[in-house]
Amino acid sequence: MEHITLLIGIVIVTALVFDFTNGFHDTANAMATTISTGAMKPKVAVAMSAVLNLVGAFLSVEVAKTISGGIIDEKAGVRPEVIFAGLVGAIVWNLLTWLAGLPSSSSHALFGGLIGATLVSVGTHGVHGDAIVMKVVIPAVAAPIVAGVAATAATRLTYRLSRGRDEKETAKGYRAGQIASAALVSLAHGTNDAQKTMGVITLALVTGGVIAPHSDPPLWVIVSAGLAIALGTYLGGWRIIQTLGKGLTDIRPAQGFAAQTGAATVILASSHIGFALSTTQVCSGAVMGAGLGRKGGVVRWSTAGRMVIAWCLTLPAAGLVSGGAALLADQGSWGVAAVAVLGLGVSGAIWMASRRKPVTSENVNATAPAEPAGVVTAAMQAVAPPPRLNGAGGPPSAGPLAAAAPVASVATVAPVTPAEPAAAAS
Fold first, then answer.
1. How far apart, in whole angstroms, are the C-alpha atoms of residue 106 and residue 293?
2. What value does the mean pLDDT take over residues 338-348?
3. pLDDT of the residue at 289
4. Burial of residue 169, with CB atoms counted within 10 A of its CB: 0-12 exposed, 13-18 middle, 19 or more buried
5. Which residue ranges does UniProt annotate as crossing the membrane (predicted)?
């Protein structure tokens, strides 16, 4: 066994930086709906999520094995420089989508980065195409659909079971359920996503001759990856939390509980069999499914469309950036240094741009702008109009005119008091 060289050390540090960005980029997966419904205070929510992310990192290593020896052929001449280039591309894409507030996939950014860098430096024989299709592409398509269908069914079931009861009373129980389900999602996120960084570090150690091929991640790798993702989670990706909690649909406690439970089930099952799926796509699909599962609930399709476009671009975009970084890194030590400087420069510029309109724990629950009802929204409301409110003085259920109203107005069924003229106007 060789000692850890400077280059391998740089790769390990870069992998932990990616793990950190993964943490704050994906905090929304577990906590967006819990925060948006008021079940937990924002800072308390992200603290709980961080602890459970750390715990989840110790539960399994199956996904790490998929990364370290399943997607990239560690015997095909993959060098630490290639892994470094792949990580830089993944980090840059993560930060760009974070700046835009889009819950894109950190996992697919990592996969795209590694694949792009390997194709440029090694060639097609360095990539296991069948593993990419079976363990990345198919789960990427199927998992959010399965989670969305499950969340839609669960949401309709919860409303059916609580039919005739006061929504304010049942909301208390669902908020408690949200806390439990959010904890489960956080645990699942740590189990699936922290392992991806473990796999990358293990791959770097194998290519550098530090450990034998097909080895499990060493304990220090598991601990460091778990701590990095937990720290990133604690800092909170407030921009993406705002998009997923308020910008995609109007989530109520019952819907939040259904969405998180469905997402956690899909993630944990996939982690058990080694599918390195995107927890972001799973949770986003579950939120959309929950939005469609409530009568009168709608999804803001423009936001959903932007998310889907980001999902489709993630693999190729991260691959292109990493491919360019790999070309530069292949030039030798000066090339690796240039990639590091360029990566730091782009990351710093993105951070400076984010300071212009900061999103923090104080304004994360600001109401998203109303989206005018388009064809899809109008059709959904025609099929499932908002329910009639219970209680004295409650307004009647919305009539045909509701289909032409803005989404924010249609989705709000709470009575509007005279002291809230702004809410009525929105």
1. 27
2. 94
3. 86
4. exposed
5. 6-24, 44-63, 83-102, 132-155, 219-238, 308-328, 334-353
